[in-house]
Amino acid sequence: MLQTVLQIVLIIMSISLFVCFIRAIIGPTMSDRIVALDTFGINLIGFVGILMIIQETTAYAEIVLVLGILAFVGSIALAKFLERGVVFDRDNN
Q1: What is the pLDDT of residues 26-80, one digit of tens each?
Q2: Which residues in 42-70 are b (16+ Cβ under 10 Å) and which e?
Q3: Residues sharing a CB contact under 8 Å with residue 27, sequence separation 6 or more, in sequence order
Q4: 24, 27, 28, 41: which is deepest, by most CB within 10 A?
Q5: What's this model's pTM, rounded to 2 decimal places?
Q6: What's the rounded Cα separation, in Å, for the pair 71 and 47?
Q7: CA-CA distance, 50 to 28, in Å (whole number)?
Q8: Residues 44 and 24 sit within 8 Å (Cβ to Cβ)
């Protein structure tokens, strides 16, 4: 029963990942793209987590950690780019 529910959740999350990917590409505004990329990262973390439950392993724990860090840093960098127009501020004043 649990395996069936987890497989259904994987299918739903796959659809969600696809929709987020489309929104990140088409998104009418840059803010939509940032939110879509952030949601894509969170869904990807959940997707890998469910795969870990199905396979009964912790082998992907590091992947989840790296995905979380990359999603956070990517969202912050894009938000900073939207706010100031640059990601790295090289002004020493």
Answers
A1: 988 888 888 888 899 899 999 999 999 999 989 989 999 999 999 888 888 888 8
A2: bbbbbbebbbbeeeeeeeeeeebeebeee
A3: 33, 36
A4: 41
A5: 0.78
A6: 14
A7: 31
A8: no
Separation of alpha carbons 6 and 70, rounded Å: 25
CA distances from 48 to 15, 16, 33, 74, 93 (A): 15, 14, 22, 19, 44
Angle (CA) 74-70-40 rounded to 5° is: 75
Phi-psi region of 56 (alpha: psi -120 to 50; beta: other; left: phi over 0): left
Q: Looking at this protein, which amino acid is placed at residue 9?
A: V
